[in-house]
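Hello forum,

I keep getting stuck at the same step: I have a sequence, I want structure tokens, and every attempt I make locally crashes halfway through. Rather than fight my setup again tonight, could one of you with a working pipeline run this one for me? It's a single chain of 468 residues.
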Amino acid sequence: MKNSNTPRRLDLSEEALPRTLWSLAAPAITENLLITVVFFSDTLIIGWLHDEMSLASAVLAATVMWVVSSPFYALAVAATSLVARSWGEHEFTRARDYAAQSLGLALAFSLATLLIAWPMTEQMLRLMGGEPQVARLGGQYLRILLLSSLLGLPMFVSNGIIRGMGDTKTPMYLSLIMNVINVIVSVALAFGFGPVPAMGLMGVAWGTVAARSAGGLLSLRVLNHRDAHLRVPIASWFVFSRELLRRVWRLAFPAFMERVVNSGSHIIFIWIVAMLGTTALAAHNIALHVESLAYMPAMGAGMAIATLVGQAIGARVPHIAEKGVRKTLWWIGIFTVALGLSFVAFARHLVLIFGATPPVLHLAGIVLQISALELPLMAFAMVLAGALRGAGDAKSPLYVMTINILIFRFGGSYLFGVILGWGLAGIWVATALDWGGRSLGLWWVFRHGGWALIHEREKREFEQSKSL
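Reply #2:
Ran it on my machine without issues. Output:
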């Protein structure tokens, strides 16, 4: 009888490829949608408080948390790729070693994040332009949120390790559990329940801490359980190897820089939008909220293809990886084109839910129709970037993104939106060109085929460094 905890590799046969892709992509897409629901539910709960300062404080604090999560996002990219490639070649001990190194780094970073950011919360919000009262309230809110970093931020990495093994269902279930905890605890603490007094904004913060901490604890428990397919004992998290750490960080650092560049560019981009006035800024925000739901399937598909490509490279069947990427591009292309057509037809109805002024809703509807053009391009870029990262190439997505941001997102937005006077519509045309440039650039890198050789080259370098 086969042991239940015997490691299993994905079915990488050509005839099973559609089924394998779907089994990876469907849970990953659902997970991303559930994560988006967390942000939406928090925004709705805080909105029900009918306090503008609470809303402003939450927006600023969320931006800070997004920035401090950058190293953990990068480590998750590295862990998924390294575990998937090791898993694909049945090097399960090596996969365990990479998982342990990644978790150890994540826990060290989470503690450092808490210690460094805790005394600086109010100052950070002031630097971001928060008024004194908003910065003071937001600082209290952010300090509570930072408590979730101890388990919530390492969860990025532990979930990435689980996906690398080919299991995208467990992170999905964990996201569902987090959603339920977040809504129940946040509502109960924000508005009061029985003997529990109403805590307002701070109640929402404690709900977030409860949800993220529970999710992180469960995710780490999955990897530490004695029946786990890849059991990573707690003691191994704190035994570091210089060579293994170097390989982890070599892949994580470009992903980290990609997140940093993306964060910095977003601030400059919003500054360009703000030059067009309050109506344009409000319309832009509404359109982004709607579009964020639309590109979650593409993000999920990118996460799924990273696992498949990684395992296929490890199993030395790069042609399966290439076929998987092409099939995924075909499927996500059909889906996003259909979604884009629905935006063209119903955009002005979709924005009505936000209840803003007629000029804001009118402008939001126009730019949401323009977003129909960028949805397939955005999806292609996300899938191709995920494929390259899964193969161990995190540099190409960074380079391609940076070039297109400078040319189109900054240059194009200022040219079309401000100089030529196209307004917010011109800025969204520029972002479509940005995503088009990214998808073409990443496709060129993918077609070039160098990604298929990275794993063997890294293995040779690793073995040589061990023998010195």
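The chain has a mean pLDDT of 88. If your local run keeps crashing, start a new thread with the error log.
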